[in-house]
């Protein structure tokens, strides 16, 4: 069964996002050059989202015979979804709904050719709620380490906005090591 993302999730050609979307009529169907792909979402940007994202990583990577990548991938997806949840949380810890009363959401997409794993976290948060910036948290800071951790565990990471859409995609690229189960010979 083909899974599709909302039509708003178009992207620039040649980008980490655009390279995995192919326009088909009014819809953007997932037709990546990657032989393995999976999508989860939308998930409400609630405190339960990071836990669901970790379980999703566990199940999908086990099914792809890439379980050796699960630890790092779970940490990264947890950090990326936690950032969306924190940005979508208002004063007092309550969810911040948009001006039309809708809860912000996040979609997760995994792509792999067994040499590489691309993790994408799409959200529909307005830019005013912030953009991803890695920073050095102080020893007493309770937050601020997520993108630094993502940077240390991945080969590359980045984020992109999509013209005409108010959300963004934050992505991280992990390399499978030779000898990893599922790694092509």
Describe the structure.
The protein is of the alpha+beta class and 185 residues long. It has a single domain (34-175), classed as 2-Layer Sandwich (Heat Shock Protein 90), CATH 3.30.565. It is 22% helix and 25% strand. The protein has three helices and seven strands. The chain has helices at residues 49-63, 70-87, 146-153, and strands at residues 21-24, 27-30, 36-44, 105-112, 116-123, 156-161, 168-175. A five-stranded antiparallel beta sheet has the order 3-4-5-7-6, covered by helices on one side. α1 runs antiparallel to α2 and α2 runs antiparallel to α3 (146-153). The radius of gyration is 16 Å and the shape is globular. Residues 1-15 and 17-31 have low confidence and may be disordered.
At the fourth level of CATH, the homologous superfamily is Histidine kinase-like ATPase, C-terminal domain
Mean pLDDT level: 77
Distance between the termini: 29 Å
Question: In terms of per-residue confidence, which ranges show pLDDT below 50 for 5 or more consecutive residues?
Answer: 1-15, 17-31
Instruction: Report the oligomer.
Output: single chain
Major sheet? 5 strands, antiparallel
Could you spell the SSE succession in H and E letters? Answer: EEEHHEEHEE
Radius of gyration: 16 Å
Counting structural domains, the number is 1
CATH architecture: 2-Layer Sandwich
What name does CATH use for the topology? Heat Shock Protein 90
- The proportion of strand residues reads 25-35%
The helical percent reads 10-25%
């Amino acid at each position: 069964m083909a899974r599709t993302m909302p039509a708003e999730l178009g992207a620039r050609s040649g980008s980490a996002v655009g390279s995995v979307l192919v326009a088909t009529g009014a819809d953007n169907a997932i037709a990546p050059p990657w032989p393995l792909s999976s999508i989860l979402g939308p998930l409400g940007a609630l405190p339960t989202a990071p836990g669901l994202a970790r379980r999703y990583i566990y199940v999908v990577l086990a099914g792809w015979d890439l379980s050796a990548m699960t630890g790092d991938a779970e940490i990264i997806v947890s950090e990326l979804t936690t950032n969306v949840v924190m940005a979508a949380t208002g004063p007092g810890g309550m969810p911040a709904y948009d001006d039309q009363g809708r809860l912000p959401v996040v979609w997760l997409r995994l792509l792999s050719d067994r040499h590489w794993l691309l993790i994408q976290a799409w959200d529909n948060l307005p830019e005013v709620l912030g953009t991803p910036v890695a920073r050095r948290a102080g020893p007493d800071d309770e937050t601020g380490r997520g993108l630094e951790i993502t940077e240390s565990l991945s080969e590359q990471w980045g984020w992109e906005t999509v013209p005409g859409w108010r959300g963004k995609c934050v992505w991280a690229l992990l390399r499978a090591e030779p000898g990893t189960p599922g790694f092509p010979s």
